[in-house]
What does this fold into?
Amino acid sequence: MPPIQIAAASAAILSAGLFAHSAGAACYVVYGADKQVIYRSQTPPVDLSRPLHETLPQVAPGGTLVFSLDSNGCELEINQLPSVGGARASAVSAPASAPAAARR
It folds into this structure.
């Protein structure tokens, strides 16, 4: 293999390695519909293997996800995302007669 082809192949491998490293974000911030920060963490709030327009409305309706390679300010985590199917859903689905039966 001629030296020029070796140099070109080495450059391609090096640049691919550099770009592959920048694929992950260092900080994820979700702004609610009222433009207030409702989530900030180094862990993504949604499954990033699926399209954001499908996953983000499930955890933050009307929200916006911003991610950055800079982790400055991300050390202090915020998680005010509504629970999905958690205690809020079970409180709504509780029968109204249960408290009356307990008072008898």
Notes: Residues 17-23, 85-104 have pLDDT under 50 and may be disordered. Residues 24-80 form one domain. The first strand starts at residue 27 and ends at 31.
